[in-house]
Design a protein that fits this description.
Blueprint lengths: L14 E6 L6 H12 L2 E4 H14 L7 H9 L3 E4 L2 E4 L2 E2 L7 H11 L2 H17 L3 E6 L2 H5 L5 E6 L2 H11 L4 H17 L12 E4 L5 H12 L4
Parallel strand pairs: 1-6, 1-7, 2-6, 7-8
Antiparallel strand pairs: 3-4, 4-5
Length: 226
Amino acid sequence: MTGGAGGGEPAGRRFVVAVDGPGGVGKTTLSRGVADALGCAHLDTGAYYRAAALVAMVHRVDLSNEAEVMAAAAGAVLDYEDGVMLVEGIDVSRAIRTGEVTAEVSRVSALAGLRLLLVGRQREWLASHGGRGVVEGRDIGTVVFPGADLKVFLTARPEVRAARRAGQESAGIAAVREELTRRDHLDSTRPVSPLVKAEDAVVIDTSELTAAGAVEEVLRLCAGFG
């Protein structure tokens, strides 16, 4: 495989780049950039959990009731294409990023049955894209695709993460940092599929990297596969 802007993933075989890390480290920007450079698909698995939370909230189910949340999610057609999260064919990309959904997504994501359901759908997504893709989330290298060809775990200093996320939202930096800390704790301590670094993941601190620089660093790692 060749890296760089003109590179492409090995043709005719499965090739997965797993990108994990907490919020505000640049997972989505990096994953999309790497996928574009490699000419393969990109999947934001977090969008699936946000969509499941949105569906459950629309159906007014008890978000702590696993059976009710699973029933709502299982009955919905969820898909992710070209950076757009779809529920029943409707673009919900903006709706799943509201404060209301963000406040509940960690609680919904901790439900073991729901994770099992959505991991199955995420694996089906990869299969439908020829087994090749750049997949981002919080448990990709440990649970969703533990056999990924390349595993990357992104980090960044707390103040950098908060400033980046605040730039995407209307909340102030202090409020965003508090929310990121809350989600970090919930996602890292949940009993099922916690946010942890895979043993064989390469750690990249994006605090001082530009988006383009981070993409190039991962592409250099990809260049080792041929």
